[in-house]
Amino acid sequence: MASHRRPKQPSRTRVTVLTTAAAAAVALSSQAANAAPSEKPSKDEVKSKVDKLYEDAEKATEKYNGAKEKQDKLEKQIGTLQDNVARGQEELNDLRDGLGSLATAQYRSGGIDPSVQLFLSSDPDDYLDKASTLDQLSGQQVEALKKIQEKQRSLSQQRQEASAKLKDLADTRTELGKKKKEVQGKLAEAQKLLNTLTAKEKAALDAEQARATRASERSALDSGAKPASGRAGAAFAAAQTKLGSPYVYGATGPSSFDCSGLTSWAYAQAGVGIPRTSQAQANYGTRIYSQSDLQIGDLVIFYGDQHHVGLYAGNGQVLHAPRTGTVVRYESIGNMPFQFGVRV
């Protein structure tokens, strides 16, 4: 027989708790809905954040370039040292073979005397320290032993130097990896921000930059300024041929560049070797502190830490490789914090 008892009613306390929780959930949902539109940054906010990320990436890029340059130099130095050690070891072996021949000759003529036995010891220094024994040797024998001693010392020094440079190389490669990862992280973060823009917003940003570039190019070409020197003019002319080439961090041409990669490549075309990084280029020539004294082809250093460099183009314009996502172009010198120029 079915039960006709009424179901148990929830307590007032429980009803109150549930009602409060439901209300809170509705309120949170409403707040989230209202807040959602403001979470998307505006076009100008995205541009500002992206520009900062690109600046940070370029700082890391110049440090990456410095580590890469150091790595290349260390590899060459280590290669040279290792070749020298190998040749030195061959020479040492020949010297020891000569002593062995002397010992053989003495043995055939009646046995090896104590002085020659010391010749063949593994520690010639110990032998030379025994002055009384030197009296038993001929001048030729002493000279042969001294050559062995000098060669052993030289080889020991070169091996120690190579070992130190190998450790330095390992540390440099570690630093290189860290800087590469840092650059890639900044660029990925910037791209993520750019992806939040609509197609219309992206087009608007591109159009703004294109207008600015055209204005800078017209201003530079109309300046009538003269180059600082024949080689500065040649370097600037070389850089002009690369207008439109993409910025790629760590690139030194001929089809893509970073900022110091462009300037070092341009001067190389003029037959002048300048350092690889912007910081090193800042200390290469004569500094020009007044913008009014700049001439075409002078290096122009930007930012307090000197992490960006371009070529002066005249009329307050600079020709440079700005950052990832851009190409070699003209730009107003006032768009970045000018530090000084460098006349090469």
Descriptive terms for the model:
single chain, 344 residues, alpha+beta, Helix Hairpins, endopeptidase fold (from Nostoc punctiforme), 2 domains, 6-stranded antiparallel sheet, 10 helices, 62% helix
Would you mind describing this structure in some detail?
The protein is α+β, with helices and mostly antiparallel strands and 344 residues long. It has two domains: 43-194, Helix Hairpins, CATH 1.10.287; 225-343, Alpha-Beta Complex (endopeptidase fold (from Nostoc punctiforme)), CATH 3.90.1720. 62% of the residues lie in helices and 8% in strands. It has ten helices and six strands. The protein has helices at residues 12-39, 43-108, 114-119, 124-128, 131-134, 139-194, 199-221, 230-240, 259-269, 278-282; strands at 286-288, 299-302, 308-314, 317-320, 329-332, 338-343. Strands 1-6-2-3-4-5 form a six-stranded antiparallel β-sheet. Strand 4 and strand 5 (329-332) form a beta hairpin. The termini are far apart.
